[in-house]
Amino acid sequence: MSSKQGGKAKPLKQPKSDKKEYDDVDKAFLQKKKEEEKALKDLKAKAQKGAVGGAGLKKSGKK
User: Fold this and answer.
1) In terms of pTM, does the model score above 0.70?
2) Both ends of the chain: CA-CA distance in Å?
3) Is the Cβ–Cβ distance between 30 and 22 less than 8 Å?
4) Cα–Cα distance list, 32 to 27, 28, 38, 41, 46 (Å)
């Protein structure tokens, strides 16, 4: 019928996982991935910088 507990039940907390051991292949992959993300971030920043300049709708002087 009716219970005291209303709403959604919270999930139980997961135990913290220990730090993973990475071998050389995994370390190289993670390093490469970080470099790619950094390059992508730089490209996005450059793209936004250039697009802000003069592009946009021009208003006419007519009423």
Assistant:
1) no
2) 67
3) yes
4) 9, 6, 10, 14, 21
